[in-house]
Amino acid sequence: MKFTKKEIAAYGIGAIGKDMVYALSSSFVLYYYQDLLGLSAAFVGFILMIARVFDAANDPFMGVIVQKTNTKWGRFRPWVLLGTVLNAVVLIFLFGAPQLEGSALRTYFAVMYILWGVTYTMMDIPYWSMIPAVTSNAKDREQLSVVGRTCAGVGNALITIGTVMSVGLLGGASERTGFRLFAIIIAVIFVVTEAFLFVSIKETRSDTKMETTSIGEMFRALLQNDQAMITVITIILINTALYITSTLILYFFKYDIGGGAGWKADYTLFTMVGGVSQILGMMAGYPLLRKFFDNTKIFQLCLCGAITGYAVLLVMCLTGLSSSLVLLLIPGILVFASNGILTVLTTVFLSASVDYGEWKTGHREESVIFSMQTFVVKAASGVAVFIAGAGLDLIGFTGNSGDTGEIVAQSASTLFSLRLIMTVAPIIGLAAALWVFRKKFILTDEKSEEIAAALRR
């Protein structure tokens, strides 16, 4: 039976809703609990790191539970809906913290964030794993995967661009109130989108099995596949560098170059231009460069492009030019566009490393290698947030820690240190990624074709 356009649309809409929730939690929870509620940035960052690593390690266990499920609605959809409802409730509590202080607030945050991660995994794993159960057509499966990944990016972009302005409109001078109301709206959207998916898509196969991968299996596969190892290390370095910036850029606009009523609009415009640049890099920049260069050369060029963008931003910060939003967009576009292409190529290189591993060992570890990508992205984001949070405490940053609407003035040394962390740390990470890649990665286009030809024989 042909997979309908309504079912494809439902799957994409589900991806938008779930990644709106993920983006809100991953991008703004540090700001909410540190800047508005007054918790130590290092403590918040530490909890985020532990929770995300635990969340990544917990994925295989959720896979086992789903595999043992058998209901009249199927194996996957009930977990998508149940996990969505539970996660939506936790999200509201996460961004609607009661008036607590000290250890009580720390405990509340730790419990709520870990619960958020567990309930999100409850729906996220079945969402991506249900594709073989809803259609047996290979083309439909590929289309669903593309639609899901693309729409997930849309959901992430909507939150990145719209949160600050929406919180201001909803809460007025009270950002705390704004976040609580905004979280309720996003939670409702989340439930509606996944409920639409639940009623629109039917599981046609009840015998579909999930391939779950443990952390031990991931690392055993990496130890046998040096090219997969190099790719994973490169992904960790790149994502950690970029997540540090994405975590601190909000503080940069609010306390450094902003400080006035217009900082929210400036931040929104910057993130909007950056998001568009990233999408254009993936959809237009990469195909254009592919006409002239092989993938390894493009990868190195984009790493150099991102490093150059950060270097330009550093010079602007040191010379006072960062006060101009128009000038800030120049390095921003360079970094975001480069990152879009790098995201595409890391997936390409992981695929090439799967062939390499089969050619080298005789065993094809496709599901294991690609499971590692999700794990390392989650782990890198956790490490980056911890580094950013610890950095804020070390430089003596003082957040609002209240709901007056006033912006606390930071010392000149604190702002200078903030600029350094936001630029120098990513430069170091990206330069390390470039060095590792150039020294150790051997899967050029030519080499990959040789391996693929050998496997076909």
Description:
It contains 15 helices and no strands. By secondary structure, the chain is mainly alpha-helical. The protein has 2 domains: 204 residues, MFS general substrate transporter like domains (Growth Hormone, Chain: A), CATH 1.20.1250; 245 residues, Growth Hormone, Chain: A (Up-down Bundle).
Structural class: mainly alpha
Q: Mind telling me the CATH superfamily name of the largest domain?
A: MFS general substrate transporter like domains
Find the count of extended strands (DSSP E, 2+ residues): 0
Shape annotation: globular
Q: Give helix and strand order, one letter per element, not per position.
A: HHHHHHHHHHHHHHH
Largest sheet: none
Task: Report mean pLDDT, rounded to a whole number.
Answer: 85
Question: How many distinct domains?
Answer: 2
Helix-strand layout with pairing:
Elements: H1 5-36, H2 41-67, H3 77-94, H4 102-129, H5 131-134, H6 138-171, H7 175-200, H8 215-223, H9 226-256, H10 263-290, H11 295-319, H12 325-361, H13 366-394, H14 412-440, H15 445-456
Brief synopsis:
The chain is mostly helical and 457 residues long. The chain contains 15 helices and no strands. It has helices spanning 5-36, 41-67, 77-94, 102-129, 131-134, 138-171, 175-200, 215-223, 226-256, 263-290, 295-319, 325-361, 366-394, 412-440, 445-456.
